Amino acid sequence: MDYVTGFETNKDFFDSFPQFDIRKSVFREKNKKSNISYVDGGVGGIPLAWREDDKTVFIDSSDTHSLIMGATGSKKSRLLVMPTVNILGKAGESMIITDPKAEIYNRTAHNLSENGYRVFVINFRDPSLGDSWNPLKIPYEFYCNYEIDKAYEIVNDVATNLISEAAYNKDPYWDYAASDLFFWLTLILFKFCKDNNLSELVNIDSLLYLRRKFFEDSVEGRLSKDKLIWKYIDEDDIIAASVTGATENAHNTQRNILCTLDTKLRMFAISPTLMDMLSTNTIDMSDIGNKKTAIFLIMPDEKTSYHRLISLFVKQSYECIINEAQSKHGGVMPIRINYVLDEFSSLPTIEDFPAMITAARSRNIRFNLVIQSKHQLLQRYKSETESIVT
């Protein structure tokens, strides 16, 4: 990670970085020898310094990830994040942006659209506005294409992000058990929808319905075997093994697992507009590195109830991009993809994040993390923090 802590003023320093001429809206190579058209891409980055006399911004266009720290009120969003988005927009690079107050979207989306970008917005402040994203769509597509290992891996990511917070609990058993329950309910849903050609029912709403139906007539903690759904369980060894572990528990244990799952999923049940937004998909994540794309993740800054979904989107989009790079582009995406993650340390822990940033550079993916202090990062990632900052 690069720490942007201050700027030198000597000429050698300035001339060592690519430049963006605001007046002419062009990029220049080092030493101002040539202009670069923004459509070539690969020249955008975070602003490092500003020269007033010729309206020139000096930028870091390398493939190095960046960590930006600034206290509350230091204008990180206005002085660094928004200029970064605008510069990346001129350079033709794709980006995924967390936007705590929607002001980044409000101030940059119009210009991006005028520059030929596909602009999407996932609005967790008001889910009735903007685009939609179904977190179960991508794993279901892998499942239908018989890429079962990949499908199970992504479903596990969904379960971990939405359900399991064991790292912060004294007794992690209930989170792990509820996560397992979410996992095998999802697999049952996948199998049922595939066998009956009902892909439109693959969503969180159907998962909640399945949870209710599956346990509604349990007796003394044991489930009735006359349910049609057992047909789908018995036909799949992995599902059957997972279900046995949950349904054979003592009644009180099973009740506590269900209570934990219901508590974690309550945000969906009490928000019909959120459920609607997560039931369909208007974003093709596999295209983020093929076409100029900007995705804004608008999240409420006054509450954290939806932050788990933000972390899940980051992880899932990354996995999808990596798969696209490996399967179709020889491991490297054609257009660089930038994660501009404002208030990153307020998001729940993203599993395997140090490994993600290590592998990202060679795939033409760059992370720009904006936090208030290193202490915040330590609270989230503990011993993994040094791996992230170095």
Q: State the shape.
A: elongated
Question: CATH homologous superfamily of the largest domain - what is it?
Answer: P-loop containing nucleotide triphosphate hydrolases
Instruction: Average the pLDDT over all residues and give the rounded result.
Output: 86
CATH class term of the largest domain: Alpha Beta
Compute the CA-based radius of gyration. 23 Å
Account of the 3D structure:
- By secondary structure, this protein is α/β, with parallel strands linked by helices.
- The protein folds into two domains: 64-132 and 282-389, P-loop containing nucleotide triphosphate hydrolases (Rossmann fold), CATH 3.40.50; 137-272.
- Helices cover 45% and strands 14% of the residues.
- The protein contains 16 helices and twelve strands.
- The chain has helices at 11-15, 76-91, 103-114, 137-144, 148-162, 173-195, 204-215, 229-234, 237-247, 251-264, 266-269, 272-277, 307-328, 353-360, 374-381, 385-389; strands at residues 2-3, 19-21, 26-28, 35-36, 46-51, 56-60, 66-69, 94-99, 118-123, 293-298, 337-341, 365-371.
- A seven-stranded parallel beta sheet has the order 1-7-12-11-8-10-9, with helices on both faces. Strands 4-3-2-6-5 form a five-stranded antiparallel beta sheet, covered by helices on one side.
- The chain starts with a strand and ends with a helix.
- The relative contact order is 0.15.
Task: Write the SSE topology.
Elements: E1 2-3, H1 11-15, E2 19-21, E3 26-28, E4 35-36, E5 46-51, E6 56-60, E7 66-69, H2 76-91, E8 94-99, H3 103-114, E9 118-123, H4 137-144, H5 148-162, H6 173-195, H7 204-215, H8 229-234, H9 237-247, H10 251-264, H11 266-269, H12 272-277, E10 293-298, H13 307-328, E11 337-341, H14 353-360, E12 365-371, H15 374-381, H16 385-389
Parallel strand pairs: 1-7, 7-12, 8-10, 8-11, 9-10, 11-12
Antiparallel strand pairs: 2-3, 2-6, 3-4, 5-6
Helix pairs in contact: 2-3, 4-5, 5-6, 5-13, 6-7, 6-9, 6-10
